[in-house]
Design brief:
Blueprint lengths: L1 E6 L3 H12 L5 E4 L26 H14 L3 E3 L3 E6 L5 E5 L3 E10 L3 E3 L15 E2 L2 H4 L7 E5 L3 H11 L4 E5 L9 H9 L3 E4 L2 E9 L2 E9 L5 E5 L3 E3 L3 E3 L34 E3 L11 H23 L1
Parallel strand pairs: 1-2, 1-6, 2-3, 6-17, 8-15, 9-10, 9-15, 10-11
Antiparallel strand pairs: 4-5, 5-6, 7-16, 12-13, 13-14
């Protein structure tokens, strides 16, 4: 019987493992199919983590996290978790690939979310080399340059405003005439002098070479006219796919409360609606989608799990 099972090996999962083991829990296992690190390992540059002044790639940035966590006794099992269930005795069963199971007294799920791809020609080829899904992460690298933003929701418009403060010009491309963002945000975007709105249009292709993105081809949905924008970067904000499959039972029903968008509902202690089950990082509701925030979530979840287990030991 594990004291704590951690599902997911990104910043939230690793931070949870560090705080749980250093906090005194002895049997803590992190289930992660690949090498720990999470989405940030695919980033070419990481420069906005407080206290880390050197600019490094995501893989190098996350490498010390693994060594530090494992030093305190965190174990890593490279196996896929299929689902989690709470049993009648108050403990949990972790169902693993290959008809294996493990049992745990508490569980932290930190499986994150995956930025939804738009399915544009060239998107996968140039992802990380001019195609990005995080303006706060990568916007600075386009300081004084022109960029494009694809999307029409709150995130797309908010990130366009952020980029407009850094870049010389932002082309905001949306497939509809109207935006699906808050009216106040839409007004700010319309009033911004260096944001050009390209509505009722589609990005047909992202072009580039060995150096990365060089431009995008935009097609007007009404006239069919195509226009090529010469620029080194495009930010895609067409939604997120929450990785919440492990929280569904055999019938496909969630075992805890989730938002309409599939994010896990938690309180400030990262507690879900199921006692002993915690969620942290990008998969939880209102997550800021930043490494430092995910790490904080993981630490909070671990401390909450320790308090939960101590309460049950009395």
């Amino acid at each position: 019987m594990l004291d704590l099972a951690i599902i997911g090996g990104g910043p939230a999962g690793l931070a949870a493992g560090l705080y749980a083991t250093r906090g005194g829990l002895k049997d803590v296992v992190m289930f992660e199919m690949g090498m720990p690190g999470g989405q940030i390992t695919s980033s070419s540059e990481m420069e906005n983590y407080p206290g880390v002044a050197a600019v490094t790639d995501g893989m190098s940035f996350m490498a010390p996290w693994q060594e530090q966590c494992f030093r305190f006794g965190l174990k890593h099992e490279m196996v896929r978790v299929l689902r989690v269930s709470k049993d009648g005795d108050g403990n949990f069963t972790i169902y693993l690939e290959g008809d294996q199971t493990r049992r745990a007294r508490a569980v932290i799920v930190a499986t994150g979310s995956t930025p939804r791809r738009a399915g544009i020609k060239g998107e996968d080829e140039f992802f990380g080399r001019g195609v990005s899904t995080c303006a706060t992460c990568d916007g600075f690298f386009y300081k004084g340059k022109e960029v494009a933003v694809l999307g029409g929701g709150d995130t797309a418009l908010e990130e366009s405003l952020y980029l407009a403060k850094i870049c010389s010009k932002v082309y905001l491309i949306h497939r509809r005439d109207e935006f699906r963002a808050a009216p106040s945000t839409v007004q700010k975007v319309r009033e911004s002098e260096n944001i050009e709105l390209i509505t009722n249009a589609l990005v047909e292709q992202i072009k580039g070479d060995v150096s990365g993105v060089t431009g995008v081809v935009v097609k007007d949905k009404t006239s069919g006219a195509a226009r090529e924008l010469q620029l080194p970067g495009i930010f895609v904000f067409v939604g997120l796919d929450v990785r919440n499959e492990v929280l569904k039972d055999e019938s496909g029903k969630f075992i805890c409360d989730v938002t309409p968008g599939g994010q896990v509902a938690v309180n400030l202690k990262m507690q879900t609606s199921v006692h002993g089950l915690f969620a942290a990082g990008d998969m939880r509701q209102d997550a800021p989608k930043q490494v430092v925030c995910a790490a904080g979530d993981g630490a909070v979840a671990a401390l909450s799990a320790i308090a939960y287990l101590q309460g049950h030991d009395k």
